[in-house]
Amino acid sequence: MADSAEIKSIHPSNISLQVASQRSFGIDYANDRFLKDGKPFRYISGSIHYSRVPQYYWKDRLLKMKMAGLDAIQTYVPWNFHEPEPGIYNFSGDRDLEQFLQLAEEIGLLVILRAGPYICGEWDMGGLPAWLLEKESIVLRSSDPDYLAAVERWMGVLLPKIKHHLYHNGGPIIMVQVENEYGSYFACDFDYLRCLQNLFRRHLGDEVVLFTTDGAGRSFLRCGALQGLYATVDFGPGGNVTAAFLSQRHSEPKGPLVNSEFYTGWLDHWGHQHVIVSTSLVAKSLSDILAHGANVNMYMFLGGTNFGYWNGANMPYMAQPTSYDYDAPLSEAGDLTEKYFAIREVIGMYKELPKGPIPPSTPKFAYGEVALEKVGTVRELLNDLSPSGPVKSVYPLTFVQLKQYFGFVLYRTKLPRNCSENSTLLALFDGIHDRAYVSVNGVSQGVLSRRQVLKLNITGNAGAYMDLLVENMGRVNFGRYNNDFKGLVYNITLGGEIVTDWEMYPLDIDRAVGRGLYNETGGNGSSSEEPSFYTGSFSIPSGIPDLPQDTYVQFPGWTKGQIWINGFNLGRYWPACGPQVTLFVPSNVLVSSAPNNITVLELEGSPCGTQKCLIEFVDRPNLNASLHCESNSEKLFSRDSGLDLDSV
User: Fold this and answer.
1) What are phi and psi of 208, to 5 degrees?
2) Which of 618, 12, 571 is nearest to 270 (CA)?
3) To which H or E segment does residue 617 belong?
4) Are 328 and 302 in contact (CB under 8 A)?
5) What are the start-end ranges of the E strands in 229-327?
């Protein structure tokens, strides 16, 4: 009979531990390469953000990436996605990071995890939670004690969750990024980077490869690199690959060459043309990188969608749209593109491609027109939208001071006197963040817009209610202005005098929509220009197999607003500006067993007074429409990507 030691040695848990102990991933400095399980290894990776893809579709997207020939995927962890309020954590459903990591492992993909705390990623505030701004003087991404204390608490939750997913512990994670593009930030605080390094090592141990990423230039690496964190670079197609990697060699004389963000496309902004980067240019540059023997991550391989309020913005202030298609090899909806197959062909020149079929693009269905009816204005539904009632203050408070981190706040005051055509409402110091829909007793006065429209003429009688419905369009995600306060961030004046005595209503629209909006009057007597809610429903056709399917929704005659389907906040629409016209609707949002409920918040003007009051579900996206709004003359934001946007 075997003794107890022999029995213990063959227990399944010990087998898994033994297998894990044989796994290793590290840097071979002597030969300028990575070693995986003691053997030379070069990875070809692609970026996918689990926060931009419904959990329902994670497996589909990861399989397509695997079949393109990728060894690994790279993903960000957005802090604000998981800790919406201090000490309140959410890792369930679409936020189930560990399930995403497990799926990647099952499919045979390694993971490069960009853990933050700052990620950029065209995500609201670069992934940092807005509640950090409750200390107004806080210096983000620095050794500010309050900031570091919050980071330590967060990492104390996150890093233990990912530790057992590290490669040497039997999981898929081969590398973990510390911070992101810190060399492009003004602070240049090495004490901060050292604190992060020590924090990551304390939780994850000494075996895992920790790395940084910065633009391919010595000026970026000067403040972004730190001894003990492997320095990698990012750059786009069309440039000099040898020169770009020489900048990495300045910080890392030995070790593997790594481009952590090779741009397959680029980001969009409202009021600018949809960026399209040539497939042939991407394929050629990718081949050049691989010919150098370098490791590469394609950013993005799948862009996905900024559902809800998650989009970011850049300075000078330009908000990003709901779609994060990015002209990537897999479209926003996960569809296979010409660029996908071109990249797969290039990868096949350098390694053996996996055998088997590539999962097809998901089918799309045009459900057609859906009639909507007006429920009422924001003003009429205020009790439901803000059940806790107003916060009163002599001077206006910001969103953060009201603990309203996303969406909308209604600022209300009374006109102090009769106002005629010469009564100018002025936003001091560009203090509208980001867009205010102004009305007096329900009569629209116009829109104040950050950097664009700073004053309006107001008419109304003394004592009339003046409402400013202020929209947070997304916080700045890149550069020194991450501390992007929202709301009325400075005083405003009327006829040259500071406006005082405010009532401020934080609006919990998502909760109200989930419960169902109801208005006894039906909103029949209100203006079509006043911010208003509209509802409708449609049923999935019977007798057609495999429904529901993905679709796209468009807004003929509508101006700007937000849409919910079955209570799910799909995102912002702004066809009156462009370039995005359609919003992607994943099939998991829809139901076949009951009518699908639609709620639309139109902020500026619906077609319902003069045209058909409807939206339309179509089977093709339109992300590149003509531009109509005031911001289309702005210079295209190019960051430090090395991507020549004029040539693509």
Assistant:
1) -70, 145
2) 571
3) strand 614-618
4) yes
5) 230-234, 258-263, 295-302, 313-314, 318-319
Cα–Cα separations (whole angstroms), residue 583 to 418, 562, 575: 43, 11, 10
Distance CA 18, CA 360 (A): 38
Per-residue pLDDT tens for 5-19?
A: 333 334 444 444 455
pLDDT digits (tens, 9 = 90+) for 537-567: 999 998 888 899 999 999 999 999 999 999 9
The Cα 479–Cα 464 span in angstroms is 42
Q: Please pick, among 83, 179, 181, 602, the residue that the annotation labels catalytic.
A: 181
**Are 155 and 177 a contacting pair, CB within 8 Å?**
no
Beta strands in 265-330 (DSSP E): 295-302, 313-314, 318-319
- Residue 363 DSSP one-character state: P
Asked about 136 being catalytic, the answer comes back as no
Q: Which of 83, 252, 261, 604 is catalytic?
A: 261
pLDDT digits (tens, 9 = 90+) for 569-589: 999 999 999 999 999 999 999
In 3D space, the residue among 104, 92, 98 whose CA is nearest the CA of residue 61 turns out to be 104
Helix axes 58-67, 97-107, angle to 10 degrees: 30
Alpha carbons within 13 angstroms on the beta-carbon side of residue 535 total 17
Q: What confidence score (pLDDT) does residue 347 get?
A: 98
Enclosing H/E stretch for 204: helix 190-204
Q: Is 181 part of the annotated catalytic residue set?
A: yes
Q: In sequence order, what E strands does 480-605 have?
A: 487-488, 492-494, 497-498, 502-506, 532-538, 551-554, 561-565, 568-573, 583-585, 596-602
Q: List residues bridging with 599 in a β-sheet.
A: 535, 564
d(CA 207, CA 226): 17
When comparing pLDDT for 553 and 528, which is higher?
553
Identify the CA nearest to 87 among candidates 180, 141, 149, 20: 149
Beta bridge partners of 313: 319, 476
Can you list the alpha helix ranges (DSSP code H) found in 433-524? 509-515
Q: Which two tokens stand for residue 575?
A: 């066809």
Provide the token pair at 385.
Answer: 């939208």
Give mean pLDDT, residues 31-39. 97
Look at residue 643 in the predicted model and tell me its pLDDT.
52
DSSP 91: -
Comparing 1-10, 53-62, 211-220, 501-510, the range with the smallest average pLDDT is 1-10
CA distance 78 to 129: 9
